[in-house]
Amino acid sequence: MHWGASFESHPSDVTHPSDVTHPSDASDASHATHASHAALATCAVPDASCNGPTLVCMTSGSIPLIIDTDTAQDDCVALLIGLLDPVADLRAITMVAGNVGFERQVLNAYLTLNVAGRLGEVPLHLGCRRPMTREWVSAENVHGDGAGGLSMNVEGLEPSEQHGVDALIELTAANPGEITIVCIGPLTNIAMAAVKDPRFVTNVKQLFIMGGSNNARGNITAAAEYNFYVDPEAAKTVFEAGFDITVIPWAPLTLRDAVFSRERLAEIAAIDTPLAAFFSRVVGTTVEFDESVGIPGSTHPDSLTAAVLLHPELVTASARYAVDIETSSDLTRGYAAMSWGVHGLEANATVIDAIDAPGFSSYLEELVSKVSVPNRPFDA
Ligand SMILES: [Ca+2]
After folding, report:
1. Which pLDDT belongs to residue 139?
2. pLDDT tens digits for range 187-245
3. Looking at residue 13, which CATH number applies to its domain?
4. d(Cα 205, Cα 172) in Å, to the nearest integer?
5. What angle do CA 158, 182, 72 make, to 5 degrees?
6. N or C of the chain: less Cβ packing under 10 Å?
7. How many angstroms separate the alpha carbon of residue 307 from the centre of ligand 1?
8. Given a cut of 50, is residue 140 above it in pLDDT?
9. Residue 91 has pLDDT above 60, yes or no
10. How many Å lie between the centroid of ligand 1 and the Cα of residue 47?
């Protein structure tokens, strides 16, 4: 089977960046319909090894970022962007309670690092294991285990001893105004960091937040999107703190511009790379659920959040909004009120209203078309 064949041939426990060649040829036009939007075909720092057959580039890119994640499904794709896009300089991954069980989320992050051939290269910090004031709410009914039943031997893999909140504070304090945080889970870690050290707010360059809906439907209730619903106090804290914020909402943006149909997923599944096999396995498992709630395919809000940070040319419309989060109502818990400028409120965020959807789709296809060498074999 495509899946097994893609993984079993390259079990290797050690990755040497110098062993991996750089993107080969920007003129490869097989996926180039919207190649101008995606810098994946060109290595940030070309050198002699760029002529090899593989496309994975280990060179640190020009955009330093941390990804704060509740790793399941599209979170994994967002991590792949941070790990493999040549313009990304992924400094750390921080884990927050969200989609699935915390330990499973950690395993899903390891699985993703593994398929990218980056195991042991990017620090993984464990953050908050529950929301600030509420009980954790699982999304396992949507995500299952978050990785389509995929597993691997994690012997010898240890997350950093430093707590995720402290890592966020220290990494940004060491590079004030330089690091952007891609926030694709509940905002507990970000809020806790801001509460613990107010300097965190100005030490962070920007927050790119996946969450809420822009005057449109939620996904866990009619009113609320999951990330803000799970920890509304954290979300409210973050939006009131004074960060430079860009929001990638669930609806209408994701539902209109970042859904992959079964036909599109089949095209990607036909690509013979470990990354495409991983993508198909991890993402494909939620399609049945998505269809059961009226969504015609897999949804990609988290990878879109990482993609628009690295490739702002994907954004075709955005505007300044005053964003606030409902915390006191049971009915509308986690609702994001996004006021578009006519209510006398001061804007605190840029909200993405539209993207180049074909360009984003081509970007993800190009990403998973890269040839990586997984560090360890997967247990299918
Ligand atoms: Ca997420």
Report:
1. 86
2. 999 999 999 999 999 999 999 999 999 999 999 999 999 999 999 999 999 999 999 99
3. 3.90.245.10
4. 8
5. 55
6. N
7. 14
8. yes
9. yes
10. 35
- At how many degrees (to 10) do helices 301-310 and 357-369 cross? 90
pLDDT at 3: 39
pLDDT value at residue 200: 98
Tell the burial category of 221 from Cβ atoms under 10 Å away from its Cβ (0-12, 13-18, 19+). Answer: middle
- Say how many Å lie between the CA of residue 13 and the centre of ligand 1: 28
Q: Is 121 exposed, middle or buried (0-12, 13-18, 19+ CB in 10 A)?
A: middle
Q: Please state the rounded mean pLDDT for residues 119-141.
A: 95
Amino acid letter for position 3: W
- Centroid of ligand 1 to alpha carbon of 27 (angstroms): 34
237 to each of 122, 132, 232, 348, how far by Cα in Å? 28, 10, 8, 12
Q: Look up the domain containing 206 and give its range.
A: 3-379
Ligand 1 mean position, distance from CA 48 (Å): 38
Number of domains in the chain: 1
